[in-house]
Specification:
single chain; two-stranded antiparallel ribbon; 14 helices; about 50% helix; about 0% strand; globular
C-alpha cells in the first residue's frame, strides 16, 4: 500500500514537471520569430504613455496565474452567457491593461496568425514592463495555451486580498508551490503602481504599525468615507521606478497595504525583507526567479486549450 502511494506521488510529481518542461524559451523562434520584439514594442509604448500601466500589466499576469494557472483566463470578458473572472471582487474595477494586451495581440496576429497565445503575451508583457521601468530582465519560458473557460469563484478564492496576514499569504502562495521567499519577492512588485483608497483606508485610520506622518499624508486624499477610488503610490519613494525601495519602506512602517506591512512585523518574513532592502541585486535575483516560478503555475500545453484569436473571447 505504501509503495502504491509513493508511486502515485511520483506520477503526480512527474506530471507537474512535464507541464513546466513543455515550456521553452525558444518556443516561437521558428513559428513566430518576431513575436517577442512585437510584444516589447507594444509594452514600451504603453508604459511611455502611462508609467502606471507597467505595474498594471505585471498585476494582470499575477492575477492570471493564480487562478487556474497561467492560461489567459483573466482576459475573458463577461458575455450574456458567460461569467468570467473580471467581475470577481479582487478584479472588479481594479485590474486594468486588458486593452493594451488586446492591442498587442492584434499586432502579433498581423505577423503570425493564431500562433502566440494570450497567456504567453501576458507573461512576456510582465517582463517587458519591469524592464521598461528600470527593473531586471529574465528569460520567459513560452508555450502556454489559452483557456476556454474562466471562474469567478476561483478568482475570489485564490487571489490574496489586501487584508491578508502573513499566515494567510504564506498558505495561499504555498498552495501554488511558491515559497515564502517567492512570496516576499513577488510582493516587491509593489515598488511600482498605485492602489485605491478602499484597499488601504482601514490601515491608515486604524492600524498602529504605521508611520504616523505617512498615515497622515494619505488621509487628505483618502477620507474615512467617500473617495474609494482615490489613488496613492504603493512606493512613495520611487513610484515609477522598479527598485528595492519597497522593502526600505516596510522597515520604516510605510507599507501602504496591510498585506504589505505584515511582511515586516516581527514575523518569519522579516529577515527576507531586511535582505532585499540591503541588496538590490539579491532582490532582483529572487524576483526574477519567483516570476519564472509563478509563470510555471499549471500551464496548458500541447493540445490543451486553444490559441485565441482575440484575447477577450473564446474562439467561435
Amino acid at each position: 500500500m505504501a509503495s502504491a502511494s509513493r508511486l502515485g506521488l511520483v506520477v503526480l510529481v512527474a506530471m507537474a514537471s512535464a507541464a513546466s518542461a513543455q515550456l521553452s524559451s525558444t518556443f516561437y523562434d521558428t513559428s513566430c520569430p518576431n513575436a517577442l520584439a512585437t510584444i516589447k514594442a507594444g509594452v514600451t509604448t504603453a508604459v511611455q504613455n502611462e508609467a502606471r500601466m507597467g505595474a498594471s500589466l505585471v498585476r494582470l499576469h499575477f492575477h492570471d496565474c493564480f487562478v487556474d494557472g497561467c492560461d489567459g483566463s483573466v482576459l475573458l470578458a463577461d458575455t450574456g452567457s458567460f461569467i468570467g473572472e473580471q467581475g470577481a471582487a479582487p478584479n472588479n474595477n481594479s485590474i486594468r491593461g486588458m486593452n493594451v494586451i488586446d492591442n498587442i495581440k492584434t499586432q502579433v496576429e498581423a505577423v503570425c496568425k493564431q500562433t502566440v497565445s494570450c497567456a504567453d503575451i501576458l507573461a512576456v508583457a510582465a517582463r517587458d514592463s519591469v524592464v521598461a521601468l528600470g527593473g531586471p530582465t529574465w528569460t520567459v519560458l513560452l508555450g502556454r495555451r489559452d483557456s476556454t473557460t474562466a471562474s469567478k469563484t476561483n478568482a475570489e478564492n485564490d487571489l490574496p486580498p489586501p487584508t491578508f496576514d502573513l499566515q494567510n499569504l504564506t498558505t495561499l502562495f504555498g498552495n501554488k508551490q511558491l515559497s515564502m521567499t517567492d512570496m516576499v519577492a513577488l510582493s516587491g512588485a509593489h515598488t511600482i503602481g498605485q492602489s485605491q483608497c478602499r484597499f488601504f483606508r482601514d490601515r491608515i485610520y486604524n492600524e498602529t504599525n504605521i508611520n504616523t506622518t505617512f498615515a497622515t499624508s494619505l488621509r487628505a486624499n483618502c477620507p474615512q468615507s467617500g473617495g474609494d477610488s482615490s489613488l496613492a503610490p504603493l512606493d512613495t519613494q520611487t513610484p515609477n521606478g522598479f527598485d528595492n525601495a519597497y522593502y526600505t519602506n516596510l522597515m520604516s512602517q510605510k507599507g501602504l497595504l496591510h498585506s504589505d506591512q505584515v511582511l515586516f512585523n516581527g514575523g518569519g518574513a522579516d529577515n527576507t525583507v531586511r535582505s532585499f532592502a540591503s541588496s538590490a541585486a539579491t532582490f532582483n535575483s529572487a524576483f526574477t526567479t519567483a516570476m519564472v516560478n509563478m509563470g510555471n503555475i499549471a500551464p496548458k500545453t500541447g493540445t490543451q486549450g486553444q490559441i485565441r484569436l482575440v484575447c477577450s473571447k473564446v474562439n467561435s
